[in-house]
Amino acid sequence: MIKRHALIIGCPNVNGQEKLPGAQIDVDAWKNFLLSNHGGGWYHNEITVLTNPTPQEVHSKIKDMPDGYSFITFSGHGYVDSSSSTMICLQGGNVSELDLVPSSARTTVILDSCRGLLQVKALKESLEMLRHEVAVDREKFRDRFDIALEHAEKGICRIYGCAFEQAAQESKAGGDFTQALVLTGVNWSGPGVLSLRAAFDTAEKVVRSKKSQQTPECQLGRRIHHFPFAVYD
Question: pTM of the predicted model, to two decimals?
Answer without folding.
Answer: 0.76
